[in-house]
Amino acid sequence: MLIAQISDCHIRRPGDVAFGRVDTATCLERCVACVNGLSPRPDIAVITGDLVDSAESVEYRNLRRLLDRLAMPYYLIPGNHDGREGMREVFRDHLYLFEHSDWIQYEIPGFPLRVLMLDTLVPGEESGMMDAPRLAWLEARLASAPQQPTMIFMHHPPFDTGVADMDRIKCQGTDGLARLLACHPQVLKISCGHVHRAVQAMWAGKPVWVAPSSAHQIALDLNAERVPAQYVLEPSGFLLHLWRADLGVVTHYCVADRYPGPYPFE
Ligand SMILES: [Fe+2]
Ligand SMILES: [Fe+2]
Predict the structure, then answer these.
(1) Which domain does 193 fall in, by range?
(2) Which ranges constitute the DSSP H helices of the chain?
(3) Does an H or E element contain 237, and which?
(4) Distance, CA 103 to ligand 1 centroid (Å)?
(5) Which pTM value belongs to this model?
(6) Å from CA of 75 to ligand 1 middle
(7) What is the CA(182)–ligand 2 centre distance, in A?
(8) 88 alpha carbon to ligand 1 midpoint, in Å?
(9) What is the total count of domains within the chain?
(10) Prior bond of 42 cis (ω within 30°)
(11) CB 201 within 8 A of CB 161
């Protein structure tokens, strides 16, 4: 099974350029073309939050125009820039968005690797939250299939990256999540967004990835007190998660652009 993870698209209304500099729609267009050009083609794509910039319906309609070009089914979860109402209005045929009235958490069915999508959005807050009701949902899901290899996606990472301004707004309330994961060895990996850089760490005994943004990246700055964060126009990217029974989950960081090659070694 092959999963493409696109994150932090920050789509705006048509023609609107972020910070007067970043054409997030063109960036996503390029990312979608790269994902569609992969061989073998991913089975699904997951879009892990900050889908749009201001949660306006017009932005979600612009997003949909771009994501509908994906050659495989795609699944959405919200980030701190999103609104569940706008997502549900524009993607009303994505029935998984309606499984719970309070959040957008669901399982992607039909694959040997179980994929659980979590909602860490707290309206009006930049940081995320894994509170008791959302955690209870996850606990019940994990308990229902303790033998099935499982991967979790969520927008806000639970761990500190060393980028001070992003760590300030990570996922809160994660002690319960850490305790739950300790009881469930079938969870092979967690992957997030939000930080706009490819980052990887071990947290609660699990490998946790952060996907880069399909648009602008956060500047690499590990000075502990340096805030606010700044953005850079480094190459954008996406993650490709390969699951095989003999491998587990192997994650490849992919640059969302085309380069010369490949060439044979001769
Ligand atoms: Fe973002
Ligand atoms: Fe975010």
Answers:
(1) 2-255
(2) 24-36, 57-67, 84-90, 132-144, 164-167, 175-182
(3) strand 237-244
(4) 19
(5) 0.98
(6) 17
(7) 26
(8) 20
(9) 1
(10) no
(11) yes
Instruction: Give the number of the ligand closest to the Cα of residue 192.
Output: 2
* Residue 264, in any domain of the structure: no
Q: What is the pLDDT of residue 27?
A: 98
| Closest listed ligand to the CA of 121 | 2
| Residue 56 maps to a domain | yes
CA of 214 to the centre of ligand 2 (A): 13
Cα(170)–Cα(195) distance, integer angstroms: 9
pLDDT at 224: 82
Ligand whose nearest atom lies closest to the CA of 7: 1
Residue 104 belongs to domain with CATH number: 3.60.21.10
Residue 253's pLDDT is what? 98
Closest ligand to Cα 51? 1
Mean pLDDT by 10 residues, the chain (266 residues): 98 96 98 98 98 98 98 98 98 98 97 98 98 97 97 98 95 97 98 98 98 98 88 97 97 96 96
Q: Is residue 138 part of a domain?
A: yes
- Tell me whether residue 222 is in a domain: yes
